Amino acid sequence: MGIGAILLIVLLVLVVAIVVTAIVVVPQGEAAVIERLGSYTRTVSGGITLLVPFIDRVRERVDTRERVVSFPPQAVITRDNLTVAIDIVVTFQVNDPARATYGVDNYIVGVEQISVATLRDVVGGLTLEESLTSRDTINRRLRGELDAATGKWGLRISRVELKAIDPPASVQQSMEMQMKADREKRAMILTAEGQRESDIKTAEGQKQARILSAEGEKHAAILSAEAERQGTMLRAEGERAATYLHAQGEARAIQKVNAAIKSAKVTPEVLAYQYLDKLPKIADGQSSKMWMIPSQFGDTLQDFAKSFAQKDEDGVFRYEPPQVDDATRDLAEAEDTEGWFSTESSPEIAEAVAAANAVAKKPIDPEVHELAAKQQDPQGVQDLQNQDDEGLAVRHRDEVDG
After folding, report:
1. Average of pLDDT values for 311-326?
2. SS3 for 318?
3. Contact 101, 42 (CB under 8 A)
4. Which residue spans of the chain are classified as CATH 3.30.479.30?
5. Does domain 67-167 have CATH number 3.40.50.720?
6. pLDDT given at position 294
7. Rounded CA separation 73/254 (Å)
8. Is residue 194 within a helix (H) or strand (E), and if so which, with residue range?
9. How many alpha carbons lie under 13 Å from residue 7 in its C-beta half-sphere?
10. Chain-centroid distance, C-alpha 38
11. Total-model pTM
């Protein structure tokens, strides 16, 4: 092989090397920081970039994707002098690769150190209980501090989370015992509260039952008294009507006997005969020891006959009965006694029984309210009593007229 061929091969290799070093491929999600003669020129990402051979070079390739970094547990002292171990998870993204390259030596170590310092500052002002219950507050403060500190490095802090807060074993055991005691306390309080509510409800139910029972007894007593009053009034009304009818019957019987005597035109001789006929029966008494007839009994009969008789031509006193008018003759005649022994109730009694049945079938509450209203209004009670008396008087007049 000649020298010319060797030179050609060397030239070709040199051209290929220059071409390879002049072409840079930057994948998507990555940025390349390019320097020219040791000075920053530009940042390229996602594609093919041409460099000036032996003058431009790639200083750093930076991952521009969002990254999640978990830092090891850090010992932090709380305000109540308890040491707790806290794990931190930081989510960040490189927005300016040039600043991330030239602004800090190792931005991940810087984020870790700033996170630890900020965490100790934040948690140092809180108690253990506040640290356990204030995760959101701690996360917001850590994110704000980190975002402000790492902004000049070209980083954007997206999220900061406390993964775990582990107190000492003894403290954790004490906390568990305290929580158990609190839960038992709350359970006892809830049990006592439930028992109290149950007792109150039971007492309230018994109270309502007694009130309702007393109200029912009062209603029953009112209805019983009202029924007794109405029964007494009806019995008194019946007795008064019976007495009146009995007296009216006796008067009618006397009128009937008197009319019959007048219609029969009884002579003094018949009366004298009846008188003499009854004398032995009058004397025939077990308690009669002595019976005397007046000596002038005949003269008395004679005077009686003279006062009611007229002397005829023969000198004999003869009794002429008076003329009987039509009213007396009608009164003496027989009456229709078919309805005397009827067992059917009168319309008034049937009406009273129907009213009593209607009252008995009414609900208790409306009747009791009506009675209570009557009790609260004495004038209304008096008016009702006067109406009852007027109704009874009208029925009496109807019976008398009948």
Report:
1. 65
2. strand
3. no
4. 67-167
5. no
6. 59
7. 133
8. helix 169-264
9. 3
10. 88
11. 0.42
